[in-house]
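Subject: for your reference before the review

Hello V.,

The reviewers asked for a structural picture of the protein, and I figured it would be easier to keep everything in one thread rather than splitting it across files. Below is the amino acid sequence we used in the manuscript, unchanged from the supplementary table.
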Amino acid sequence: MNIVKALEKHSRLFWGIVGGELVLVLGVIDYLTGYEISFSLFYLAPIVLVTWFVSRRLGIMFSIFSAITWYFADALSGQTYSLPAIYLWNTLIRFGFFIIVTLLLSALREKLRTEEIFARTDFVTGAVNTRYFYNLAHMEISRSRRYQHPFTLAYIDLDNFKAINDRFGHGTGDMVLKTVASALQHHLRDTDIVARFGGDEFALLLTETGQEAAKVVISKIHSSLMAEMQKNSWPVTFSIGVVTYVAVPHTVDNVVKIADELMYSVKSGTKNGVRYSTYTG
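And here is what came back from the structure prediction:
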């Protein structure tokens, strides 16, 4: 899988050029070796490459290109048939074979990509799920240790969320969660991470962010969240614990636990507030 990920970094133009060159090379070899040796299997290589790394449409185009190349290689190599129409028939059969492979491979690729997205995304909100968050947080911890930069984790709990489900139903509850996730993402950078933890808890990982910068961002987020709740007449508030890590605990569990405990101190007190802390080891 690591090899596939590395190959996916190449551009579509790169794979288009590589695929085209492969078809031409195969056509030349097919012609030079004569009609007695079949090269049908090898024509699948460029088709598979462009279908997987570019698109189904280009895979279909290469299926046509490969079938035509095979036709000319056969015709020029001296292969003869009892009827000229057999050339066309064989070309169509080859094209059909290539198309079937292209469509099956394209469907497999889309299914794998969909499963990959579902494996790291919360189904309701579209935010990162807990498991994928832990992977990303682990990488951020490693970067923090290496480059000696701080990062901030905000742990958010929705106060009175159970009352939303009880009073309005789970459909409205899901709408609240989606609204919260959208509002959180709106105020963050592409490098920051929004994750849903449990039923009504979210975590924000602010990469390379000190406490002063975190205060500015979290203040805006809290105001935005409250405005969304008031606009929709949802009786939900937010208890938030924000920890800036200058030193880094040994595990992601510890990083999350410290922020969770700070959030709980808000929730068990006045609720609807934000508390900040700096972890220095």
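For the response letter, the relevant points are probably these. The chain has ten helices and five strands. The first strand starts at residue 151 and ends at 159.

Happy to draft the paragraph if you're swamped.

O.
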